[in-house]
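Materials and Methods. Structural model of EAL domain-containing protein. The 275-residue sequence of EAL domain-containing protein from Kordiimonas pumila was retrieved and submitted for structure prediction as follows.
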Amino acid sequence: AKQIDGCSHCFYEDHFDKDIVYKRRLKRDLDKAIDNGEIYLEYQPQYDCQRKLLSGFEALVRWCHPDLGFISPVEFIPLAEESSQIIKLGNWILSEAISEAAKWDVAVTIAVNLSPVQFKQEGLIDVIRETLEVKNLPASRLELEITEGVLIQDSEQALKILKSLRAMGVKLAMDDFGTGYSSLAYLQKFPFDKLKIDRSFIHAMQANDQSLSIIRGMIGLARGLNMPVLAEGVETEIQHAILRSEGCNEVQGYLLGKPKRIEEYGHLLVDVQTY
Ligand code: C2E
Ligand code: CA
Ligand code: CA
Ligand code: CA
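The predicted structure was written out as tokens:
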């Protein structure tokens, strides 16, 4: 294991990842992890690439386990979802991200990922409304990133919740767009404010012409629906330049900033930032 930020990173073989004993342990340890301060958030900047301005941050959850080191959200979020631990974790993430954003001098948005399981939580709307009130953040500063998973299971119920959130003034972004199933139908039916193109498309963009055509299609589609588009996983100047010229509205990725502790981005939070 190597040390990064005082948290060791262990790289396991695939078969270990699937180990039932290991998963059971993670689930058990997750219960105490929040109380023990092992869970924290990193923030990744999002930029308006047309005007070259900071537009927001996405909050991404991290777990530094005392014995096992850094554990990826790709690993523990699904476990938390199986056991409904995601409700406590998700509420903590919302509260933490909202209270952080309320401290900033620049009025950029804070994007928070919502699990489909959280969506089924009784009283999700009240939790969000109360958290915004207590932390004193205008609803329009909160953007919820939602995947299609939410819409598939009970789409009438989902539509009701999305409409209530929107009525409150909260922004809604469709996350991982293009990776799911029948995305196009959902775009028409559900009231999203933004479309996030999954990074797999951005990654493939330079490797083949089809990928660029798909991205072009997604941007055109969104424009037709009057919806801004954010491209995630932008790693190179070339990707950035192409996306910009194709009319993409926002970008996020290692090129412009990795997810980091908010203190590392203090310089972005004092004044309107161009790049
Ligand atoms: P996501 O919502 O699609 O988040 C984007 C992922 O891409 C993040 O991985 C981010 O660190 C990574 N990323 C950003 N820019 C680049 C880039 O330029 N290149 C590459 N290769 N990767 C980039 P991360 O933080 O490991 O999160 C993975 C997934 O875990 C997220 O995918 C999301 O589905 C889930 N997740 C993370 N934080 C939360 C959370 O607070 N709540 C929930 N429910 N899920 C979360
Ligand atoms: Ca996301
Ligand atoms: Ca994604
Ligand atoms: Ca996602």
